[in-house]
Amino acid sequence: MAKRQVFYSFHFDNDVMRVQQVRNMGVIEGNPSVSPNTWEEIKRSEAGIKQWINYEIEQAWAKGMGVVGIHIHHLNCPNNTSNKKGSNPFNGYTINNGTIKLTDILRCYEPSSWNAYNDIKNNIEQLIEEAIKIRNQY
Fold first, then answer.
1. How confident is the model at residue 98 (pLDDT cuts 50, 70, 90)?
2. Exposed (0-12), middle (13-18) or buried (19+): which is 120, by Cβ within 10 Å?
3. Local structure of 29: helix, strand or coil
4. pLDDT at position 33, please?
5. How far is CA 126 from the centre of its chain?
6. How confident is the model over 66-81, as pLDDT tens digits?
7. CA 22 to CA 81: how far, in whole Å?
8. Predicted TM-score (pTM) of this structure
């Protein structure tokens, strides 16, 4: 399967090391994360972080891109050995004039707790292709 270009959206302080693991799997290509200066402005409030993530999801969908969520809290991290699972990033989004909830059509994948790295590595291509197919249906 051809490599896909992927945009990563994540909570920088909690997950930067975990996201690097996903990037280093070699399965997908990704763009650089937000610059440190921009991140400093965004993270001044939790509302700023949520607004940024909301913007990313909305823009990706508007551009016709496939969108998939992957919970990465089970990946090992040298800075934070464990983390709590975040909420579904698609909560509260609707399409088609509010008639379809994104949580009903988009996947937010939950890898196994005991082998999260390999679970993500073995399934990420399929998850991305599935997200593209779903987006093409809407």
1. very high
2. buried
3. strand
4. 47
5. 15
6. 999 988 888 887 766 6
7. 16
8. 0.72
Of the candidates 96, 103, 90, 97, the residue with the CA atom closest to the CA atom of residue 137: 96
Give residue 72's identity as a one-letter amino acid code. I
pLDDT at 108: 92
Which sequence spans correspond to the domains of the chain?
Answer: 5-137
| Residue 73: closest CA among 81, 65, 59, 84 | 84
Distances (CA, A) of 109 to 24, 37, 88: 19, 30, 10
Residue 22: CB partners within 8 Å, gap ≥ 6? Answer: 8, 70, 72, 75, 120, 124
Structure tokens at 135: 């987006």
Using alpha carbons, select from 85, 46, 72, 59 the residue that is nearest to residue 7.
Answer: 59
N-to-C CA span, the chain:
24
